[in-house]
Amino acid sequence: MDLASGVAVKLWKTKKLFSKLFSEDILYLLSMEKLWENRRRPTPLTWEGAGTMVIACVSGSPFSGIRNYLELLPSVFKPTARMISRSR
């Protein structure tokens, strides 16, 4: 905990933070039925599943020619979370 600023800051482990942002928070938002009346529902991600998901690159789609970013998500998220925690 960081008490220097007068506010206790809990340092989250990478997987726990990933789970909070991309799974738990998404599940909470999905419970709000009115929010999804005119929108497409998001899909929660798990740490383990994020690296194995595949996006079909269909010719003419906005994802054509773009490397599968979901495969990169855990490898980018972990060092970024560490860098942010060190900067506090």
TrEMBL record:
This is SUMO-activating enzyme subunit 2. It comes from the Eukaryota. GO terms for molecular function: ATP binding. Keywords: ATP-binding, Nucleotide-binding, Ubl conjugation pathway. It comes from Portunus trituberculatus. Pathway: Protein modification. InterPro entries: Ub_act_enz_dom_a_sf.
